[in-house]
Amino acid sequence: MKIVILDAYTVNPGDLTWHPLDDMGELIVYDRTLPEQVVERCKGTEVVLTNKVVLDAEILNQLPHLSYIGVLATGYNVVDLEVASRQSITVTNIPAYSTNSVAQMVWAHILNITNSVAHYATENSKGRWTNNKDFCYYDFTHTELAGKTMGIVGLGNTGMATARIAQAFGMKVIAYTSKTQLPEGMTKVTLDELFQESDILSLHCPLTNETKGLVNRERLNLMKPSAILINTSRGPVVNEADVAEALNQGRIAAFGADVVSVEPIEASNPLLNAKNCFLTPHIAWATKEARQRLIDICVENVKAFVQDNPQNVVNER
Fold it and tell me: Fewer Cβ atoms within 10 A, N terminus or C terminus of the chain?
């Protein structure tokens, strides 16, 4: 069996290993694959693993030997599932491997915004504290989290992990969720109530037709001027122009995001120059522990497929 990894570098830039896959067949690893290289690299291959390389109908129709696609991520929109099913190709994903890592990044953004950690570290490296007249200095009003209201859009694995950390900080947790029963100390509210009441609002919903542009000018106008918005879900869940406008006009206090609508971020993205906007390059998932977990699940997915008992299947077979 031939196994091809199309874009291995992001998941494993060299600090981990793909060796467990060697035991299951001929393994060929590409760090990156351009769209025009996909078909040639996948010809005659039974198993293809991809993170962000797109396998659309045009490509799949040229790969008659392909029987399995392993998406090296939770989201699987890079694969045309309808065509894959029609061609009897099994498609799997990697669920819930980065829950704790993403929740950790949410709080990294929140704590950086509320305590200005990066700002002071930078100032001190320039000698400002050394030459200060007083034992301390502060440039911003710092915020204590205890007693504040944390709003969550989507109480899946990551949303729930984020909510529990909020409770540990002594925050009140409210959520917009499809769940009917919420854990003790969490309250279900409407979407409008969530935007109106949250001191910090964190997005944890999948990207669907219903959630695209969920955060727009109308909903931003419901928020407190002191509110902080965090997005670690998918970039298009927010209207970026509307968020930039709200930041620049002081209608919300800050925005922290690990995702944007087009990645890598385009130079024209209005968030790059917006006030109090803090962006990280889609790395919330990428702790070493989470990436190792991803590879481990990937190996188990391939093993299960080879044994004709596939797991984490996302398409109809």
Answer: C
- Is 204 considered catalytic here? no
By CB atoms closer than 10 A (0-12, 13-18, 19+), residue 264 is exposed
In a domain, 165, yes or no: yes
Q: Are residues 62 and 157 in the same domain?
A: no
Task: Provide the 3-class DSSP secondary structure of residue 292.
Answer: helix
Diameter of the chain measured on Cα atoms: 73
Is 67 in contact with 89 (CB distance < 8 Å)? yes
- Which residue in this structure is represented by tokens 């522990």? 289
Is 282 an annotated catalytic residue?
yes
Same domain, 23 and 140: no
pLDDT (tens digit, 0 to 9) for every residue of the chain, 317 residues total? 999 999 999 999 999 999 999 989 999 999 999 999 999 999 999 999 999 999 999 999 999 999 999 999 999 999 999 999 999 999 999 999 999 999 999 999 999 999 999 999 999 999 999 999 999 999 999 999 999 999 999 999 999 999 999 999 999 999 999 999 999 999 999 999 999 999 999 999 999 999 999 999 999 999 999 999 999 999 999 999 999 999 999 999 999 999 999 999 999 999 999 999 999 999 999 999 999 999 999 999 999 999 999 999 999 87
Q: Which of 26, 263, 289, 316 is catalytic?
A: 263
Residue 29 and residue 168 in one domain: no
Is 234 designated active site? yes
Domain match, 125 and 48 both: no
Q: Against a cut of 0.85, is the pTM above it? A: yes
Identify the domain containing residue 210 by its residue range.
Answer: 99-279
- Strand, helix or coil for residue 124: helix
Mark whether 6 and 58 lie in a shared domain.
yes
- Which pair of structure tokens corresponds to residue 177? 């969720």
Q: How many domains does the chain have?
A: 2
Q: How far apart are CA 107 and CA 95, in angstroms?
A: 21
How far, in Å, CA of 76 to CA of 156, rounded?
A: 17
What is d(CA 83, CA 73) in angstroms, rounded to the nearest whole number? 20
